[in-house]
Fold Catalase.
Amino acid sequence: MASSILSQGKEKIQEAMSAKDTKAAQLAANTKDVHDPSYRITSDWGTKQSNTDDWLKVATEDKTGPMLLEDGFSREKIQRFDHERIPERVVHARGVGAFGKFTLFESAADVTSAKVLTDTSRETPVFVRFSTVLGSRGSADTVRDVRGFAVKHYTEEGNWDIVGNNIPVFFIQDALKFPDVIHAGKPEPHNEIPQAQSAHNNFWDFQYLHPETTHMQFWTMSDRSIPRSLRMMQGFGVNTFTLINDKGERNFVKFHYTPELGVHSLVWDEALKIAGQDPDFHRKDLYTAIESGAYPKWKFGIQCIPEGKEDDFDFDILDATKVWPEELVPIRYIGELELNRNPDEYFTQTEQVAFATGHLVPGIGFSDDPLLQGRNFSYQDTQLSRLGINWEELPINKPVCPVMNHNRDGAMRHTITKGTVNYWPNRFQSVPPATKEEGGYVDFEEKVVGIKTRLRSKKFQEHKNQAELFYNSLSEPEKTHMMNAFAFELDHCDDPIVYERMTQRIAEIDFDLAKSVAEMVGGEPPKESNRPKHNKKAKGLSQLDFAPAKPTIATRMIAIMIADGYDAIAYNGIKAALMAAGALPFTIAPRRNKIFAAGEDKSTGKGVVADHHLEGMRSTMFDSVFIPGGAESVATLRKNGRAIHWVREAFGHLKAIGATGEGVQFVKDACDLPGMEFSTSGEVVDSYGVVTASEVSPQSFKEAIQMAKGAKDFV
Ligand code: HDD
């Protein structure tokens, strides 16, 4: 085992080096392999140790006496343990990361001089960290929350970080409100309840008191905040940046990542259950996909507004609570992000990685977006308390290009700089600034005249139009999900002023939605708002707009439920067909031990070892369930309450359910809904939004799974 892991590690590094992955090669120089057989335990000062289990003490075989303070190795071992934790991130504490590459299929030289966006021959190594926002480091993955989507590009010109989210807008417009919005969302100060939830009085109190949050609220109450997988969500830079080309022309820009697999979500009941059943659901999904070679990919796109056109819109393009509708500013897809390597160690890579919106390379600049400007201070600052002043020297954060300047010292400095001067200018001309021709970052020159004030400009005052645009653009099922989400969240608020005011706010966007929410959560019914509705829709807002061009079931997890006496032909047939389509079939049975097919001799037969037993895994972990026939097998499942619950629950979560032979009637009885249509042929039937195929051929089941993915988004 150990030697195979060891060789895998070496292979990975070799692969990376041969693929010219400069970051992997750099990290390899910092990596020690615990499976290298030449190692022996040493103290941190390097002396090999002969006993690391017993503290040095005064003792005989009959009597234990006092332990001795002189045992430096033991003190060091305990002390190192005592100090293992560093402060968790103040937001986005729970996260998972992966390495990959950024490639460009079209040069954007017309708008930027940045090599990373113009040189199509380059492969830029990246590290991406996904996260939830509110929960602490040990919280569950599937909570309702925004997901962080932070990308560190290790370019030849320095690190370029896009510190984005899976939702294109933000709650607030000015960075100064950030401590308030986060305090209000985090557990309440008096009792530290609730964990990783926005369903509480303070969060919704803040939301009501800040009308600017309305648009983002609608996004967070949509299915976007409960993704099925981190591989199936969009990423957005959110803030407005700028691109500057060789001619010195400037464009305002927003960054987009669109997943190859489409945008898919869980249903809320699944998300709640998975949070308990498998708090690591999203991290495992990402890890497994990468280990099995199903590398997640996103198209990278830019939306550009040339300087001079920034005032052409009825919203301010520097306001982070607004999207740039695609009808007005099309997205131009120019590159691809691929994740293809899991970290070797969580702490030194995923925990110690540190992003900063201020990390830019020549050709990319900031805008006057007041949220971005404040962020530029905050990220640099927060790393000081989390990692210390020399945080950029940590292996995961270190650029792949040379770093040299006259900054010195500070706790935990690693670099040793030789020479007699540490200032500029110096009599040796040592380490001068770079000219533009040498690749120096030159700030865009801009005339700024103004009045010093704490004002927000007029266009920043309108907060409802895009919330309505988003809501109008959703499909009916997405709207129903949103109604239920608002109703869930406000039900957890017990202060009437909080939920009554919120339903009134919702009425300003959509009166029917507000009435339905108010009916569920109680309080005074909302009054119709006099805000004139624009009734407009836009594309790219509903997640149904992101169905993959070629439907696929690759990496989907399919449970095949059997007991002794199952139909081996149906079982083997469907398993092979699923694997051929890149899906991951799992055998589920009453016990995790050999299960024998109909007619198979239990004493001599090979049997099939189930991957999980019915209690060990629940239907929520899978995208679909299949029940092959076999009279004895199905009779056993019929007597098992958990097996019946499995099928009913999968049905309730709108998943594809397939069955053959005796399995067909079992599924029908387990779901048992009046008026439910059920196919008894290979034809796929969509009933109650659940796709069933009985007497299934592998093809019809595959189709059913593909359809169910759609159905799930529809219902
Ligand atoms: Fe932030 C972390 C995304 C506004 C202050 N933020 C953080 C992370 C992401 C975002 C993905 C986690 C990075 C990681 O994985 O290490 N933040 C956003 C987006 C925002 C945003 C998309 C709006 C456009 N953030 C924002 C504001 C402030 C901060 C307005 C402060 C004024 N954010 C921080 C922080 C964090 C952080 C305190 C905590 C840990 C860290 O920076 O490294 O500085």
